[in-house]
């Protein structure tokens, strides 16, 4: 009996202490793959995915969550994920019902935008690239004098997140970019497509992603329906729950 119990304890220790994490297994698979320009994920000390992930042999990088899901699309502009991760965490809180939390604005590089505004209070301020406040809070008709003068108008005439995002991308020199489309309320439209390619995605009104880029996506009606049901009830993502299924033409 003692011998049998000892073996069970040893087995449990092997599974718990020495089992490879999802990131570590993913990394091992990619290292063995023969695909060019592959992304070999980096894992932190806990075995989770690091935030900044870059493709080998290229300048394209992405921001990932600890579980390996994507926060951003691949981009040559991304140098850090500090702001993108912060924004993603706050948007997740909002989707879970938290009201009044501050959702930061990010530059394409992943740094914090010079103008930051709190959507609930209407206050704006100037920030450095690390997100540190460098001016006192102000309201309508105030300005942020950093390297570039940036108007901090808030209220009825302030540009929405989507409209500001669209303006940044429209002025960017990056090829194969996605210039977001905004609806009449200033929210992100559901179907978003990359310029000069057949890749499209489905987005939520706040700009977070429902799907990854795909050449198969032609409409987002079912994707959005499914996303709402899964958000409302986590069981909707399991096979036995009657959530709408996604099909491609």
UniProtKB/TrEMBL annotation:
Entry annotated with the keyword Secreted: yes
Entry keyword Electron transport: no
Signal sequence bounds: 1-19
Domain Thyroglobulin type-1: 20-76, 80-151, 159-222
PROSITE patterns (UniProt xref): THYROGLOBULIN_1_1 (PS00484), THYROGLOBULIN_1_2 (PS51162)
Residue pairs linked by disulfide bridges in the UniProt entry: 54-61, 117-124, 193-200, 202-222
Compartments reported by the entry: Secreted
Entry keywords, A to Z: Disulfide bond, Repeat, Secreted, Signal
Pfam families: Thyroglobulin_1
Recorded GO CC terms: basement membrane; extracellular space
Gene Ontology biological process: cell-matrix adhesion
Chief subcellular location: secreted
Tree of life domain: Eukaryota
PANTHER family assigned to the protein according to its UniProt record, in alphabetical order: NIDOGEN-2, SECRETED MODULAR CALCIUM-BINDING PROTEIN
Protein name per its UniProtKB record: Thyroglobulin type-1 domain-containing protein
Native source species: Larinioides sclopetarius
Lineage of the species this protein comes from: Eukaryota, Metazoa, Ecdysozoa, Arthropoda, Chelicerata
């Amino acid at each position: 009996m003692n011998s049998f119990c000892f073996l069970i304890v040893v087995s449990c220790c092997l599974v718990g202490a020495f089992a490879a994490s999802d990131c570590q297994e993913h990394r091992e698979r990619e290292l063995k793959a023969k695909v060019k320009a592959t992304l070999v994920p980096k894992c932190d000390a806990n075995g989770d995915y690091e935030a900044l992930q870059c493709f080998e042999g290229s300048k394209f990088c992405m921001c990932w969550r600890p579980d390996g899901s994507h926060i951003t699309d691949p981009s040559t502009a991304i140098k850090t994920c500090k702001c993108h991760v912060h924004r993603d965490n706050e948007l997740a809180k909002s989707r879970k019902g938290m009201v009044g939390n501050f959702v930061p604005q990010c530059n394409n590089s992943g740094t914090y935008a010079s103008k930051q505004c709190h959507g609930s209070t209407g206050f704006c301020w100037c920030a450095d690239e690390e997100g540190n406040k460098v001016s006192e809070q102000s309201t309508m008709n105030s300005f942020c004098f950093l390297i570039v003068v940036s108007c901090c108008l808030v209220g009825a005439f302030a540009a929405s997140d989507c409209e500001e995002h669209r303006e940044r991308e429209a002025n960017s020199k990056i090829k194969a970019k996605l210039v977001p489309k905004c609806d009449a309320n200033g929210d992100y439209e559901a179907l978003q497509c990359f310029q000069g390619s057949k890749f499209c995605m489905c987005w939520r009104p706040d700009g977070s992603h429902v799907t990854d880029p795909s050449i198969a996506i032609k409409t987002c009606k079912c994707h959005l329906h499914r996303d709402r049901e899964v958000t409302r009830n986590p069981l909707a993502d399991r096979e036995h729950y009657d959530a709408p299924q996604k099909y491609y033409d």
